[in-house]
Amino acid sequence: MARTRFDHWPCSVARAVDLLGDAWMVLILRDAFYGVRRFEDFQSNLGIGRNVLTQRLSSLVEAGMLQRVPYQDRPVRHEYRLTDKGRGLFDIVLALVRYGDDWLAPDGPPVVLRDRETGARVDPIVVDRHTGQPIDPRAITVEPGPGFPEEHLARAKADGRFA
Amino acid sequence: MARTRFDHWPCSVARAVDLLGDAWMVLILRDAFYGVRRFEDFQSNLGIGRNVLTQRLSSLVEAGMLQRVPYQDRPVRHEYRLTDKGRGLFDIVLALVRYGDDWLAPDGPPVVLRDRETGARVDPIVVDRHTGQPIDPRAITVEPGPGFPEEHLARAKADGRFA
DNA sequence: GTAGTCCGTTGCTTGAAAGAACGCACCAGG
DNA sequence: CCTGGTGCGTTCTTTCAAGCAACGGACTAC
């Protein structure tokens, strides 16, 4: 069936996963972060079906995360480059790397990241901006913010969210 | 068709997204982080189909991210609690929140996180552990790590990965 | 003119999501 | 005792997209 859409939920997580949509989206972006730009390279790196790749690239362009830029004439060929909005997703990919390295890599990290200049290992972690410390889910509470739609507030509270 | 599996790729991103699988997985976990534990609550909060929810909860339990714990007899009823492996995913959810708040919330964040003790706003960011600074995708390189399978190394290099 | 490159499009098959209905075990009220 | 309510799934049908392979089209190189 058609995918359920989450893009209008009053929740940043829901909107973000709606944007990513499925696994291929994330993997295409991963490749993009690693420097891949062309259809053929995405396809052979990922082994994704060509029709699916076409569809996903269009979605990413439409969502403003990739930009389709011509790199030659006759015939016109385009490459797909990250926009700022796309680059913002790098943090999500980094969080995935972190988790995969920690929990899904018994033999050690399959790939490591290094600073291009200094050569130092790059080791992403998620922290609170102000304390600089990791965040424990049990130590936080959730409440409606400025972007929470007025008309759903009563309902949400009645349902026991924001308890 | 059957979903393509990524769990054996030599890439932590691929393994992590394979684990998350689809959007529902992430949203179920989000609810779990916010304190939801019971079938009925997941279902009504998310509006997910009951059959799909059943399937997803089983997957999460099987993957070791949730634990099925009885909370009453006659009839026996179970609730679903996060394990440590599941709690590790919170950082990914936080990265999603961050991105959604930054790029997908024109009216401001729909929900805000607060420290349960201090009441201070919690503002997740992804940084390098050593420098404490955000990470720019253009400033990093990728190379094979200890967990990269020996037998694929030659192939990967020939393909121009790790260039 | 034959082969190769790059980027898609088309067509077929199958499996999974969506959605609603049903089942089952128990409790509470009248 | 019978009805209604709660909590947790299971079953069924329909629809839509992933997976896969083949094809096409515009060039370049030999």
Computed Rg of chain A = 19 Å
What's the oligomerization state? homodimer
**Distance, first to last CA of chain A:** 34 Å
Largest interface summary: A-B, 92 and 92 residues
Which stretches of chain A of 5+ consecutive residues score pLDDT under 50?
A: none
Residue share in helix of chain A: 40-55%
**Helix-strand topology string of chain A:** HHHHEEHHEEEEH
Average per-residue pLDDT of chain A, rounded, comes to 95
Q: Report the β-strand fraction of chain A as a percent range.
A: 15-25%
**Helix segment tally of chain A:** 7
Major sheet strand order of chain A:
1-2
Number of strands of chain A: 6
Shape of chain A: globular
Note the main sheet of chain A.
2 strands, antiparallel
Please state the structural category of chain A.
alpha+beta
